[in-house]
Design brief:
The structure is a homodimer. By secondary structure, chain A is an alpha/beta fold. In chain A, 37% of the residues lie in helices and 27% in strands. Chain A is built from 14 helices and 18 strands.
Chain lengths: 419, 419
């Protein structure tokens, strides 16, 4: 079976797709019966495309030429970002083309519009590469667990930040870790989208819509790692935890607790063993219990492998879009109950600690463990692990504690994710 | 889209399928557009089937009644074992039925015959549940990595033995661990198929045929765990290793090193963190690098979830059988190079150790580390970690060492898998 495709964009992932089709087309056809033919490539910079060995004859700078080509079955959008990606996708769908994309931003923001258009025009939109690179998490949720009710999703979904946190655990500073990530090509020149947790947030929104068949809004509670301090990573380690930028999406009584940010995870949990640039998704299903999928979440060939699998699936008519039939309420993040890690920098004089424990007690926060780090200084760190407490109580207590004369620096608090 | 199915066998997995269809049929249809209708159930013990709430009208004791029913699209074979499973599958295929099975034995032994018949009759045979329970490893290899060349597969594919090994690490004896596994329902009354590694061997053969598109023979080098001794598990732990019953299938220069048996794995490797009854598959692909899929490899609902996903896939026409177009030579297991763990029980007198090191040296085996466990006894254990050595040299040296008067008990040797 022949499948004619067009590529929009020949950046990192696009060049990976070209490379795989060049090297492994015969293998793909023997395995799947699908012969993928690259009919057109849209790229503003022809010299870039020609370096990949793409024939000038199939090159164009105008995406409309791709869309108006009646022979093309599938349009592969690999330019990323919101626009013109959205416009190209919508126009291509209206022209009856199937879509494959690796673009999490456009799917998170315009997914609803895109999938409605796809349903109306009876075409597929596949986006395996948008979350977790080559980890087949979209397929697992949509197909393998089609009969299961997912109860929770936990994800390490951003390689840049996971790499930085792994380096910091080894004692490297945040800025050196970020620099190393940039040198190795894991981090962008402007890393803010990654380190502020926005990329992670997009991805957990996409997975949650699929898993819960509900139109989860794009903007969820998101915290980054740029303000994380080394001592907290070290204290966490001593206490038996790792700090991970975790995407969390838990369904309880039809209320969804969804957020992305740094939390502490017990060191013996599988998710804590996911290091460096590796991504992982840990699912809890009613029938399947705990499952974890783990692999390269980024990079040219891993991501391009996911794109090519989406192309083959289109030939086999696998429907690759959301269906929304559930209405789910989002949990008020102030009402989240968890254990917390707190760190205060205290002036070492009698009564300092008593004031803090009083404020915690007044706010219904009870202490599981408290350690005053012995240091030969006037200001000493005090680390507290609480029992289960309400997020809003912690925030209120922290606000009050911050105002004490005996407290220097901004107090640190991190949720402990007990799974 | 309606899909009429028939179930053969209502044991553990069959009852799980019935339960899922009863509880989640509406969910499955909303998500996938496929309405699964249970048309017939073949079971010798009607009372067992009726307890599951199956209507007597659709019950039969004669599988031929299922096969001759023109309305049935898919036959779900869940009786296990070689026969009559093979006969039922082949006859059903010839009658134009698609097949879903969870039966690794029949696929490992008769896969070639079954898939040839399926191709001739243009039907699908899906078997996701046969390997790794609800872990979507068949789908990952066949679909997600359709464009990638797999270089190695490492699997913990038998929950019973992984559970026993995990208990032994905690200090429980082999027989107590086995008893506990049986009490918890992880192990059969006759556990030999599991503990001797045969189940693991079947599964790695199935995965390898898919990954390498080659007709790997059913019988591969297989060792069990029934002769593993507690001290070796403890010595391994001290040295930074875990002993796992690992399925290994590595392709190098078109030669396949395939085996199933206990090996030592470095404790920091992800596969070492897979404990208790959990299964995992660790893949190395040319494009995707390292991927790991981890989850429940057995149990009623996890396995039934995989069966139901196979049923839905048939409605979507996902081809679920092997295509063989590669010829691969199997590696002579004597020629495998690895580091080894050796343990000897030595009579504690001058010159005992020297004799052993001489035999090792004469067989081209060099020593990386040797520890004589200090014990106040006449016979003391000596543990040796070798540098990379040839399997056949190790075997020959062990044979010679076993004959020494100063050596009591059978020496122990385990390969160290360095990935």
């Amino acid at each position: 079976m022949n499948l004619n495709i067009a590529l929009i964009g020949t950046g990192t992932i696009g060049s990976g797709v070209v490379e795989i089709l060049k090297n492994n087309s015969e293998l793909i056809e023997k395995r799947t019966g699908v012969s993928i033919i690259l009919k057109k490539v849209c790229e503003l910079d022809f010299s870039k495309a020609k370096k990949l060995g793409i024939d000038e004859e199939i090159l164009t700078k105008d995406y409309k030429e791709v869309i108006s080509d009646k022979d093309i079955d599938v349009v592969i959008e690999l330019i990323g970002g919101y626009e013109p990606a959205r416009t190209i996708i919508i126009e291509a769908i209206k022209a009856g083309k199937n879509i494959v994309t690796a673009n999490k931003a456009v799917i998170a923001r315009y997914g609803d519009e895109i999938f409605k258009a796809a349903a109306e025009n009876n075409v597929n939109v596949n986006f395996e590469a948008a979350v977790g690179g080559c980890i087949p998490i979209i397929k697992a949720i949509k197909e393998s667990y089609a009969s299961d009710k997912i109860k929770a999703i936990y994800g390490i979904l951003n390689g840049t930040t996971n790499f930085i946190l792994s380096m910091m655990e080894e004692g490297m500073s945040y800025s050196d870790s970020l620099k190393k990530a940039q040198e190795l090509g894991f981090a962008e020149a402007d890393p803010s989208f990654d380190v502020e947790g926005k990329d992670t947030a997009h991805k957990i929104v996409i997975l949650s819509r699929l898993a819960y068949n509900s139109m989860i809004p794009e903007n969820i509670e998101t915290t980054g790692i740029s303000e994380l301090k080394m001592p907290d990573i070290m204290y966490a380690k001593e206490l038996g935890y790792k700090i991970k930028l975790l995407a969390i999406s838990k369904l309880e009584n039809n209320e969804l607790d969804i957020r992305a940010g740094p939390v502490m995870v017990p060191i013996e949990h599988s998710i804590a063993s996911v290091n460096n640039e590796i991504n992982a998704v840990y699912l809890i299903g009613e029938q399947t219990k705990e499952t974890m999928l783990y692999g390269r979440g980024a990079g040219k060939l891993p991501t391009a492998t996911a794109v090519v699998s989406d192309i083959v699936d289109i030939a086999k008519r696998n429907k690759g879009y959301y269906t929304f039939f559930n209405e789910i309420k989002l949990k008020d993040q102030d009402e989240v109950m968890a254990r917390f890690y707190l760190k205060f920098m205290l002036i070492d004089k009698p009564g300092s600690l008593a004031k803090i424990t009083k404020i915690l007690g007044d706010n219904n926060i009870s202490i599981n463990a408290a350690v005053q780090k012995e240091e030969d200084k006037d200001v000493v760190p005090v680390v507290v692990i609480t029992h289960k407490s309400l997020n809003k109580n912690i925030k209120k207590a922290i606000e009050e504690i911050e105002k004490l004369d005996s407290v220097k620096e901004k107090p640190v608090y991190l949720m402990i994710e007990d799974f």
